[in-house]
Amino acid sequence: MEKAAQNANLKTDYTVEYKFDGLTVCLTYDKGEFVRATTRGNGVVGEDVTAQVLTIPSFPLKISYQGTLEVRGEAVIRLSVLEEYNKTAAEPLKNARNAAAGAIRNLDPKITKLRRPEIYFYDVNYTSGGEEFSQVAAHEFLQKEGFKVYPYFRVCKSADEVRAAIAEIEKNRREIDVLTDGAVLKVNDAELRAEMGATDKFPRWAMAYKFEAEEVTTIVNDVVWQVGRTGKLTPLALLEPVELAGATVSRATLNNFGDIARKDVKIGSRVLVRRSNEVIPEILGATEHGETSREIEKPSTCPSCGGVVEEVGAHLFCLNRACRERIVAKLDHYASKNAMDIEGLSESTAQLLVDKKGVKNCSDLYEISAEDLSDLEGFKSKKIQNLLSAIEKSKTPALDRFIFAIGIDGVGRVAAKDLASRFQTLSALQNASFEQLISLENVGEITANLILDFFKDENNLAELDALQAAGVSPVWSTEKKEGVFSGEYVVLTGTLSNYKRSEAQKLIEARGGVCQSSVTAKTTLLLAGEDAGSKLEKAKKLGVKTIDEAEFTRLLQE
């Protein structure tokens, strides 16, 4: 708060508003008539959610402005509405943020209406007449035209007033009926905004003040060990349920056994839990041990299959390839959206296929028939056909998706794209040398050795042969995409307001750019959102051109 007030040049008025934690939506009007609603800020690129938004009585279908207009708001679900919904819901919703996003992004407007979201509008993005609104004028315009605005809106004329407004929001945020994660401070004057421009990170005329991560204490009831597709065992703390940042927290992940020892976590002890940026629960450490507190034992065998466990560095690994949890995790990863994108093959479906149909490998998926699925719980004819169609469609994946899907340890999506671009066929990748691998930007010595080990393993080679025999044939497109980012090597950092990181990456690549995971001498452009850190500093030192989200959106419109 001090920084927000000190950074303010208080020769002008400022406005202070709540920063709500929901889903940003933009509404477009033309000749006074509502035209469409999207989930992104430019009103053109993004998910069209018009049908869903039409079920929400927070905005007018007709306005007096006769040009083209775009307004922005935040879709939220009131905490009381969420609580009421969960009383009768077959599947209760975990928190207000996800509930709002799900209500707007789902394909059935009936579900949107049932969840009763609202939209609080706060800005005028664009007018065809070129009118420039001050923040006060925008607020008044939205109210006059019938858009729902949140009643808290402060105009501040001094640093003390700015501090008082932010303090007021922080004090009252747990008593209002909407999930909030901060305050927004804006310059009021439109001409001064244009004159101030933007920094590398965000507009100079606006800043978000985020609250410190909320912390509570609760009891660790137990610790269970989850087994991933590589066999790595990860400890999961089962907590006495506690309310934290608008959600009920009952679980928190611990990194490894060393993390448990370092934080002095014991079963039956009270621990301090935090949700960084109000998202991921994290155990900071023990605050109190009781008479019944007991040490967490390091597993000597796999908790899933009872197989041999090996300690490698800081982690424990189950060595049994036939371990049920390993197989389920492997299938879930293979079918995931960024891999083979087999819609309908969720973790629960993978569990059914393993337990009821004896599926052990990804290649087994291509042998499944409608008859095999017909006796599984919840599988009707339409669901069966959809799953079989998705499996069949996955036989011609992009090479980079296939490389990611087969689960080479250490190879994420970015490295998979580098490998696909360099070798262009799976056969060429299988025969790659260590020197060829480490020459790639996103492949270091450790990853290079992991890739070599993967293709030396007889089990992996047998599975690749089985996939090929089943008709799986990855393809690499040599068609070069052209666009505004052609020739650019782009790194994304920080938090973007209107784009998921994966969405922004796809938009860049579709317009000719190459996305990198880290800033190097090859980097030509950095897209910096809020809270950008070391990557921004390195880019500055190397003289790399940096753009903010507003400039990114403008380039997309080109």
Describe it.
The chain folds into five domains: 2-210, DNA ligase/mRNA capping enzyme (D-amino Acid Aminotransferase, Chain A, domain 1); 214-311, Beta Barrel (OB fold (Dihydrolipoamide Acetyltransferase, E2P)), CATH 2.40.50; 324-386, Orthogonal Bundle (DNA polymerase, domain 1); 399-417 and 426-469, Orthogonal Bundle (DNA polymerase, domain 1); 489-557, Rossmann fold (3-Layer(aba) Sandwich). Helix content is 35%, strand content 23%. The strands form four sheets. Strands 9, 10, 11, 12, 13, 14 and 15 form a seven-stranded antiparallel beta sheet that branches. A four-stranded antiparallel beta sheet has the order 6-1-7-8. A hairpin with a 2-residue loop joins β14 and β15. Mean pLDDT is 87; it is low at 1-9 and 41-45.
Question: Could you give a short description of this structure?
Answer:
The protein has 558 residues and is α+β, with helices and mostly antiparallel strands.
- CATH fold-level label of the largest domain: D-amino Acid Aminotransferase, Chain A, domain 1
- Average pLDDT, to the nearest integer? 87
Q: How many independent structural domains? A: 5
CATH class of the largest domain: Alpha Beta
Q: Determine the strand fraction and express it as a percent band.
A: 15-25%
Structural class: alpha+beta
- From the alpha-carbon coordinates, what is the Rg to the nearest angstrom? 26 Å
Straight-line distance between termini:
37 Å
